[in-house]
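User
Class, as today's exercise, I want you to study this protein, comparing sequence with structure tokens, and judge whether sequence predicts the tokens.
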Amino acid sequence: MSDRNSNIAIYFHVHLVSDSTGETLVAMMKASTAQFRNATALEHLHALVRSEEQMEKTLERIGAKPGIVLYTLVNGERRRRLEEFCVRRNIPAISILDPTLSVLGRYLGSAMISEVGAQRNLDAEYYQRIAALDFAMAHDDGQNVAGLVDADILLLGVSRTSKTPTSIYLANRGYKTGNIPLVPGAPLPAILDELKKPLVVGLVASPDRIVQIREQRLMGLRQDAQTDYIDQDRVRDEMRQAKRLFIKRGYKVVDVTRRSIEETSAQIINLYQTNRPKEQDL
């Protein structure tokens, strides 16, 4: 087979649907896509899908941006709804644990217990992580800013500085994390002047890297690339203004240009451990 198309970038949507935290799905997706050098997954995590209403919203999002669906669902009815929906829309859907569970069941001669998140001990740390994930999803991309008074960490940054995936990763480590986008010409929420508890971290990156990621994003969405969103001078000005803002307000700054989400999060956690306010200061 010819390799002449081996360097063509492929962008595709991947929906990760779980009635637990979705960590297993995220790990499986990253490990799998790493085997395809030119494939870039546009990840959509639908975690803690434990009601019919949540499932309905998940199906709407999958329908709006079809791609591949990976899922781990214990509830039989919600699993059936997802599978039937994907069949009708001709969307590939894979229950990633089925082959392993099937082999284990035959080997052990035992039925699985069908318990959500059974691989985890239901201890205080686990519930803390679930609460943190709920918080991150509720306070993503500038939503519910009034609730940020309860955040452990608040991330600021221009578009495509990995605010959302970093927030989700930090939440999986148990940190209540929100994020606010910096939009040219739009003022910051006034509540930022009142926050005392959260560690505020500004995320920055090289303008060239931001432009590259934004171009890939537009290509993946098949949108017109002729826009100020990827104009080199505009992006450079965005980043310059963001850095000035962070310095003026005394926020910690992390450069994400050459860092993975895990590396970025590790540095933020180190900053949090070093700089978190004492109880008497709150």
